[in-house]
Amino acid sequence: MGDKVLVLIKPDGLVKSLTGNILTRLSETKLEIAAAKIVRVSRELAVEHYKFLSGKPFFEDLIKYIQGEYHSRKKVLAMVYVGEGAIKKVRELAGATNPEEADTVSIRGQYGRITTKGVYENVIHASSNPEEAEREIKLWFQPDEIVFDIYPTEVRDVTEKKRIWSSATGKS
Ligand code: DAT
Ligand code: MG
Fold first, then answer.
1. Regions of the chain with pLDDT less than 70
2. 49 is known as an active-site residue
3. Got the DSSP string for 107-143?
4. What's the CATH code, domain 3-145?
5. What is the value of pTM for the model shown?
């Protein structure tokens, strides 16, 4: 199966209508898409995702950015790609963390920017190594949301409160 990688198209990517373009470029890698969903990012999820950067001066801005607080679209597109060299391939396509330093034809090089506040709006996230990929994929996705069994699962009886569709017909 090869590597697994969590890919996020961040709120700036969505506002700039880059989704189609980025998906095309990802598909050209011939990696396989194993999961995808649009997510409204809670503070809890954002903090857990970026927990290794919690000591950094830019941490609070980073949390606000991924939550869409700086954009009109408060959501991200979260995806899992699998395949030989997936992490390397997607990170190469993404380009360097700092959009000013990223290769000019990479996604971050082409579409990223540093705001006047110093926030790196770099359009896309990609896990940086297999351990991070596993941690991130398990944070963003439940097993049933992924079409392959990419990590071992277990069956357990759990009772939890769950929001379901109301039986009342709503007006759209
Ligand atoms: P990457 O996203 O390339 O894996 P990272 O994991 O080191 O980079 O950092 C996560 C995000 O944090 C990154 O996409 C943008 C932001 N960031 C990193 N370094 C930064 C800096 N010096 N100033 C502002 N934002 C930064
Ligand atoms: Mg990283």
1. 171-172
2. no
3. HHHHH-EE-TT--EE-SEEE-SSHHHHHHHHHHH--G
4. 3.30.70.141
5. 0.96
